[in-house]
């Protein structure tokens, strides 16, 4: 595994703003020990009511510090400030959701007996220290999905943020500290990949949650499996936008554009990346969609390296026969919006994840072909279906291989709705009632007399 460099590099200019040293092995052992000690007292024996009161304060502090935090996110990974403010507000809503509901989610569940005397209860107890490995594209939101429910449950957290988000990592640790969480409940760490492997192997660490690339998820799952640690993975996606019928093509095109580029300039796992359009709508859709995509002002990707990778993927697709519509060329981390057509199902481009403002459009004859194209990917995270036929909508939703399906809309999500995928998009669920179930011991307590 390679070394990591924790540094803020402004993607709009490539300027190095600040570099941060990684923690020493001794510092990480100390952090793990603090998290374990706090779990054995505060986490294992404290009350859910006390913990959710602290979470509510975390929500409030996100709101109070939103301007400063948004500026940090913008500086680290290039997200426009308005989008960063929305992300922080959504994160605050997640903490508030678990503050409102965790007591009920974690309440003892009485089990009816089929035979015998006495009683049976299912009790949800925390597991211990958890390692969170978070990505750069949503520096606040991804942490909220992991930290909110698990701190409510009584687990303690070691949080390794993305190397390009060291200031977000420190800002979040300060929020949890200032909210009143005890030392060791939430610890920000700057760790190398080799050190991450040692942390996972530590017997005091009980589980790992990673949001990131398929490659990173595979590596972490292998290490965790070797040490018999529970893992939740939220990885990549090549989400389909299936357009079968519409009574307002302009509105549907606008939704498709938003699905592709409204989040992080297309750098989102749940961005709609493959437009799958019925042949009766295809020509008009491509014309309107391409015009709308190319009219979008350019924005930098997270780094020059990310833009170079996307540029190579597009070049490879064109070399294999795809048609490219775009305006301008890559400049540093700046990559122009683009639309690819003429990609045959089964081509590498049709099965890859394009992380940036590049959309693919496919023509299909009917519902069956649309589903076949939608499912012809190693990923299975989200999906979007547009149709005027309610029965067809439900039928297609049932047949699509994905963890999430949204009908006649995009990004219709919230703290109460479980998030996660299947296939190579990972496993496990975050948010909603299921999000608090992943890292708890569902203990049976059977009383005979």
Keywords summarizing the entry:
6-stranded mixed β-sheet; alpha/beta; 14 helices; Aldehyde Dehydrogenase, Chain A, domain 1; Aldehyde Dehydrogenase, Chain A, domain 2; 449 residues; 7-stranded mixed β-sheet
Would you identify the CATH architecture of the largest domain? 3-Layer(aba) Sandwich
Q: Compute the gyration radius: what is it?
A: 23 Å
Number of helices: 14
CATH homologous superfamily annotation of the largest domain: Aldehyde Dehydrogenase, Chain A, domain 1
User: What integer is the average pLDDT?
Assistant: 96
The backbone outline, from C-alpha atoms, is globular
* CATH domain class of the largest domain: Alpha Beta
Our count of domains comes out at: 2
Let me know the number of strands: 22
Share of β-strand residues: 15-25%
Tell me the helix content: 40-55%
Contiguous runs where pLDDT drops below 50 for at least 5 residues: none
Q: N- to C-terminal separation?
A: 55 Å
- CATH fold topology of the largest domain: Aldehyde Dehydrogenase, Chain A, domain 1
Helix/sheet category: alpha/beta
Sheet with the most strands, sense and barrel status: 7 strands, mixed
Largest sheet strand order = 13-15-16-11-10-18-19
What can you see in these coordinates?
The chain is built from 14 helices and 22 strands. The radius of gyration is 23 Å and the shape is globular. The protein folds into two domains: 253 residues, Aldehyde Dehydrogenase, Chain A, domain 1, CATH 3.40.605.10; 176 residues, Aldehyde Dehydrogenase, Chain A, domain 2 (3-Layer(aba) Sandwich), CATH 3.40.309. Strands 13-15-16-11-10-18-19 form a seven-stranded mixed β-sheet, sandwiched between helices. A six-stranded mixed β-sheet has the order 7-6-5-8-9-21, with helices on both faces. It has a three-stranded antiparallel β-sheet with strand order 3-4-22, with no helix packed on it. It is of the alpha/beta class and 449 residues long.
